[in-house]
């Protein structure tokens, strides 16, 4: 049996980014884990670099500003980029 797919439509707006120019960040939830005698929500921080689509994921037990700031040293961007990213978020 042959399945036909419709022809792809062209993108409405194609974006181009220089390396390190843009990243998308967000929090997600990955279920629940046991920690000692309690159960905690397992969250994750995710960042995607727009130009290369390089992905960084870090699992945490909370989505607080403290946890957000703690990922700074492990991000796949240079220190200046990480500092700028955290300046933007700390002003919100």
Describe the structure.
20% of the residues lie in helices and 34% in strands. With 92 residues, it is an alpha+beta fold. It has one domain (23-90). The longest helix is centred in the C-terminal third of the chain and has 12 residues, at 79-90. 3% of the residues are buried.
Please describe the structure with a list of short key phrases separated by commas or semicolons:
3-stranded antiparallel beta sheet; 92 residues; flat; alpha+beta
Order of helices and strands: EEEHH
Low-pLDDT runs: none
Query: What is the CA–CA distance across the termini?
Result: 54 Å
- The total beta strand count reads 3
Question: What would you call the structural class?
Answer: alpha+beta
Number of spatially distinct domains: 1
Strand percentage, roughly?
25-35%
SSE topology sketch:
Blueprint: E1 23-35, E2 38-49, E3 55-60, H1 65-70, H2 79-90
Antiparallel strand pairs: 1-2, 2-3
Task: Give a short summary of the structure.
The protein is of the alpha+beta class and 92 residues long. It has one domain.
């Amino acid at each position: 049996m042959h399945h036909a797919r419709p022809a792809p439509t062209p993108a409405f707006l194609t974006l181009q980014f220089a390396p390190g120019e843009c990243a998308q960040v967000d929090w997600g939830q990955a279920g629940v884990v046991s920690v000692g005698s309690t159960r905690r929500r397992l969250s994750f921080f995710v960042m995607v670099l727009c130009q290369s689509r390089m992905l960084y994921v870090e699992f945490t037990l909370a989505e607080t500003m403290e946890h957000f700031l703690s990922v700074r040293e492990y991000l796949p961007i240079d220190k200046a980029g990480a500092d700028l990213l955290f300046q933007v978020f700390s002003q919100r």
